UniProtKB/TrEMBL annotation:
This is Nitroreductase. SUPFAM superfamilies: FMN-dependent nitroreductase-like (SSF55469). CDD domains: PnbA_NfnB-like. It comes from the Bacteria. Residues 8-190 form the Nitroreductase domain. Keywords: Flavoprotein, FMN, Oxidoreductase.
Length: 214
């Protein structure tokens, strides 16, 4: 099996340079990602792209809110308790992360979250508030498409819960209808050449997640 493709080369970047990504490139990425499959082509997603002064205001707001300890509530809540398999993978990811970064570097991982990864571009993905789990599946396909299309354009990204922790700071910048839920954010940009961006993740051995009958 070949190991060289945009799927295997892509990884999350968490510290972006201040080099902007031009709007035409970002639109090309989103346009390509719209080819994602969805239930009977429902395409239940919308995208809101923050750049320039808008993204600067969101950065300032986020630093202020995290700095003064304001509790954040996403519009789509993660589970309080995860099922054992994803929980075990999450634990392994945390161990991997803690082992990779030195004690001096660890605080920087938390800091960049507050800095929204210094991203020059953030795209927020919404879906109808009363959407089913199938729409969440579709929105995820659109989001992954954005990351892969970005990779094709030499742009890096990270999908992050952190980006949508304070929906009010996003809603005050866009006209997002009340019946849409802000589900995810994806930070996009050109990565700085540093250790934060060198973190790599592993995947479960295929045979642990696959049953074949023939
Ligand atoms: C729904 C979702 C939420 C995420 N939230 C965060 C986040 O808040 N902060 C962060 O640093 N990474 C976040 N990530 C990135 C994951 O940690 C990352 O995708 C995973 O560890 C696999 O690593 P890779 O993207 O480098 O392959 C999130 C990813 C997804 C899909």
């Amino acid at each position: 099996m070949s190991d060289q493709s945009i799927l295997t080369n892509r990884h999350s970047a968490r510290d972006f340079s201040d080099r902007p990504v031009d709007l035409e490139t970002l639109k090309a990425i989103l346009y390509t990602a719209q080819n994602a499959p969805s239930w009977e082509n429902t395409q239940p997603w919308k995208a809101y792209l923050a750049l320039g002064d808008t993204v600067d205001r969101i950065h300032r707001s986020h630093r202020e809110l995290t700095g003064n300890g304001t509790k954040g509530w996403t519009e789509v809540m993660p589970p309080k308790v995860w099922a054992s398999m994803p929980q075990a993978n999450m634990d392994a990811w945390r161990q991997n992360m803690l082992a990779f970064f030195t004690d001096d570097e660890k605080p920087r991982f938390a800091q960049v979250q507050q800095m929204l990864f210094n991203a020059p571009a953030i795209v927020y993905l919404t879906m109808p508030k009363d959407a089913s789990a199938y729409s969440a599946y579709d929105l995820g396909a659109f989001g992954y498409g954005i990351l892969l299309a970005a990779e094709e354009h030499g742009v890096s990204g990270v999908p992050a819960y952190e980006l949508v922790r304070y929906p009010a700071e996003i809603r005050q910048e866009f006209d997002i209808p009340a019946d849409e839920a802000i589900f995810m954010g994806i930070a996009l940009g050109y990565p700085k050449d540093n250790r934060l961006n060198q973190l790599r993740t592993k995947r479960t051995p295929l045979d642990d997640i696959l049953q074949v009958r023939q």
